[in-house]
Here is the input.
Amino acid sequence: MTEPELVDVVVVGLGVGGEEVAGRLAEAGLSVVGVERDLVGGECPYWGCIPSKMMIRAANALAEARRVDGLAGTAQVQPDWAPVAKRIREEATDTWDDTVAVRRFTDRGGRFVRGSGRLDGPGRVRVGDQVFQARHGIVLGTGTRPSVPPIDGLADTPYWTNHQAIEVEQLPESLLVLGGGAIGLELAQVFARFGVRVTVVEALDRVLAVEEPEASEVAAAALRADGVQIHTGVRAERVEHDGTRFTLHGDGGAEFTAERLLVVTGRRAHLEELGLNSVGVDAAQRFLPVDDRLRVTDGIWAVGDVTGEGAFTHIAMYQAAIVIADVLAQARQTNAGPDASGTASVVGGAMGAASSLGASGSSGSAGSVPRADYRALPRVTFTDPEVGAVGLTERQARDRGINVQVGFTKLGSSTRGWIHQVGDEGFIKLIADADQGVLIGATSVGPAGGEVLSALVVAVHAAVPLSQLRHMIYAYPTFHRAIEDALRNLR
Ligand SMILES: Cc1cc2nc3c(=O)[nH]c(=O)nc-3n(C[C@H](O)[C@H](O)[C@H](O)COP(=O)(O)OP(=O)(O)OC[C@H]3O[C@@H](n4cnc5c(N)ncnc54)[C@H](O)[C@@H]3O)c2cc1C
Here is the structure.
């Protein structure tokens, strides 16, 4: 049996969250082993946020060029995927090579181990033949993988997940997108703008079902205007592939065919792979439950998508800051104990980093560990128009029995929307708690919906009184000035 090697911290999964935790703890002077089985950096830089937003940037440039007609003369648009694929390959992903990212981590003082990590009893992680005993803690940042529904025949076909969609060099002539959530709509619009015949099939009765119904309507209309066919309320029952084309059979006899099929029906954490039973944690759950310091159980933290608190890079980074502060606080406590001989330099490093990290989140005072608070969690779907949202939707607020006020205004009725003209679809919708006199949710849809959202995030996060929001000065003529109208319409 392999003798465990004693280290301070083991981080399993070096995606956005894990890499941040591992790197910052290593910089703080702890001995950190970072374990990654695929690419350091995870989904976001290689198959998620960054390459998809490069695709969106390109697709939006095409859409803007097509809007020249009637606004500024005429423009002829000839889409070409080659520069997009090249940019993703060369600038975003280094042809899906993480050499630079591994060096980024080791340069911070971390020790990198390539492989699959698995818990092997309290404080222990096994990676192949190597076993590490973590003195201060283990952090699980193992993320999620695409959740592929058990549709008859699907598993035997060469369907795409986001990986193949991002890696594509030659666009197909037609594409079926199974799933009308944020990722499905973003990719559907991109491919449609590059001339692919795109059909979206969604089981629920509207796309972007987690957002306000008005947002679903605007997004669906925008995609339809780009030529995307959208079928909601259709459950996929069977998939066939005849060597060249996919056929998707839905309930009620619906049938769709295309050259490619992209499955984007959600993401799943694979807890069964992590050896959780060896530390007394139930692996038969959808996500890893954590407390407000991201602790799973004694000496184990989780960070990012695996926690199920929101599959966003900004959540992973937010949680990472809390985990870092908490692990350092633990390390400081352990090292301050009677058995701390020989660890003075580490203690000094760790404490220094704890204070430089501030440990000063929303609710933490100086030196204390901040607690996670997701009330003002922002989310943006980067379709054109963008759909930005924060906090509760109207439905969620009403279901909680809150005394709700709703304020709504269309972007087109604002000065900036009117000036913008073509492409000005969107709105601001505010959800207020009438008893508290604060915003508890908001949706901002428009050409800059995600950017306008930031003001609303501050309002929800800091519980800015409505009276103050009404007496702010909003720059003229910005899109965010529509917030003032929506506030006026609250009732
Ligand atoms: C197409 C797409 C677009 C997106 N766009 C956005 C966006 O615009 N904005 C946004 O905020 N978010 C976006 N996201 C979500 C974002 O990518 C994730 O929220 C983020 O990557 C989560 O980071 P993470 O560290 O939790 O997990 P991941 O990035 O998934 O990283 C987890 C890592 O753990 C590794 N791993 C898993 N198990 C083990 C093991 N046992 N041992 C060793 N290693 C292991 C994996 O290989 C992986 O590298 C998008 C996602 C997709 C798919």
